[in-house]
Amino acid sequence: MIDLHCHILPGIDDGAPDLATSLAMARIAVADGIEVIACTPHIYPGLYENTAQGIRVAIAALQKSLDDEGIPLRLVEGADVHLTPELLVDLRADRIPTLNRTRYLLLEPPHHVAPPRFEEQIFNLLAAGYVPLITHPERLTWIEMNYPMFLRIAKGGAWLQITAGALTGRFGNRPRYWAERLLDEGPVQIIATDAHSVHRRPPLLAEARVAAEKRVGTAESWALVRDRPAAILNNLRGEQARPAVLRESTSVAPGFWRRLLKRR
Fold first, then answer.
1. 66: which of 140, 208, 243, 264 is 20 to 30 A away, CA to CA?
2. What crossing angle do the helices spanning 173-185 and 206-216 adopt, rounded to 10°?
């Protein structure tokens, strides 16, 4: 399996605080069947001032430690990126890393407030050739009032990633409900761990794959944790890796996306 969202780099954000924790997380991941992890620390101006170059240095150091310890885990680069007015400029200048230097990037919305003009900002990234993979919508406190928007942006070309622990109940009933609904209705392309630690938020994917299998079948459950993440790391275009369509029950009326696309 491939985990595209993991805070395993030591001492760089609110994830692993030290190398010992990073190595312990790596051992848990390997035992769970994870072979590749995207190291995705927060880039959050004013709080976590990480840069692409600093992340690459940290990944090289951790990869060497993994190799020295005989832990068979491959690390690739990425970041858990927050929306800022400079995001597109920073991506083009290689100050913010995409996933494995592809067109795909993790994009973390604010947890408690719907950002203004969110759909427009997503469209601007898509129009510039990037594909935002929106992280853990099921855990956002504002998803109830904005669920149709997530369906629209998924139809418009953005990707959605739900958290493994949300699907298995680690985050409580409410995130589990939204994770299951998103999974059932079809806009989700990826399950990832968003792991931060050994105990409370460990890097476990297998249990979520099993949970997904019961809802969407074996083939799709493996696509969520192996096939589509591999397609992303190989920079395949969206149509080569996405589900074909949202399920019929989630069709939405034409709106923001159609109007913007007509202007191009």
1. 208
2. 50
Domain boundaries, the chain: 2-263
Q: What is the largest CA-CA distance in the chain?
A: 55
Give residue 251's Cα distance to chain centre: 24
**pLDDT per residue of the chain (264 residues) written in tens, 0 to 9:** 999 999 999 999 999 999 999 999 999 999 999 999 999 999 988 788 899 999 999 999 999 999 999 999 999 999 999 989 899 999 999 999 999 999 999 999 999 988 889 999 999 999 999 999 999 999 999 999 999 999 999 999 999 999 999 999 999 999 999 999 999 998 999 999 999 999 999 999 999 999 999 999 999 999 999 999 999 999 997 555 555 445 444 333 334 333 433 433
Task: Kindly report the pTM of this predicted structure.
Answer: 0.90
Q: Dig out the tokens for 233 from the structure.
A: 């790391």
Quote the CA–CA distance of 127 and 131 in Å, as a whole number.
9
* CA separation for the pair 188, 69 (Å, rounded): 35
2-263 maps to CATH 3.20.20.140: yes
